[in-house]
Amino acid sequence: HRAIAGASMGGYGAVTLALKHPETWSVAGSHSGVLAPAGVTRETSRSWAAGLAQAYGGRWPYWSARFGVDSSTWAARDPCALARELAAHGTNHMPALRFDAGRSDPLAFQSRIFEYCLTALRVPHEYHESAGGHDWRYWRVHGAESLAWLSARVGSGR
């Protein structure tokens, strides 16, 4: 009966930890999370890492230090891949998942990609988009909604 949540990279961490360790985390929430880290590039004519480096621009050293520089290290950390692996054992092992993003958030497409992934896997989840960006103003407004949802799930055992 433990919940974990976070915003931005913390949202990524919360969802990833819950998917890697569902025996510890029964509920996870993310606000504006980096939920499809390799989804930033639609580049197909260049090498995978070069496409990501171009997409992330000046932030590439930050991301490559965390995820590595080859597709296998990114795939091992991808929330969709983790959900797919866990779902293969049945959705009763899946933590309850809720995530949201602001429609003006430049990373909102990552939440949309993750939502599409979970829907395709038939993994129960809640996804919301609202007005706002990738900032504390958005997170303060929607944090209370998330906390209520998380608390209800922890109290019920799911």
* Total number of beta strands: 4
Approximate shape: globular
Strand order of the largest sheet: 1-2-3-4
Mean pLDDT: 86
SSE-based structural type: alpha/beta
Assembly type: single chain
Helix content: 40-55%
Describe the structure in your own words.
It is built from seven helices and four strands. Helix 1 packs parallel to helix 5 and helix 2 packs across helix 3. With 158 residues, it is an alpha/beta fold. Helix content is 49%, strand content 14%. It starts with a strand and ends with a helix. The protein has a four-stranded parallel sheet, sandwiched between helices. Strand 1, helix 1 and strand 2 form a beta-alpha-beta unit. The chain is globular.
Question: What order do the helices and strands come in, and which of them pair?
Answer:
Elements: E1 3-7, H1 9-20, E2 27-31, H2 48-56, H3 60-67, H4 71-76, H5 79-87, E3 96-102, H6 108-120, E4 126-130, H7 136-156
Parallel strand pairs: 1-2, 2-3, 3-4
Helix pairs in contact: 1-5, 2-3
Keywords:
single chain, 158 residues, alpha/beta, four-stranded parallel beta sheet, 7 helices, globular
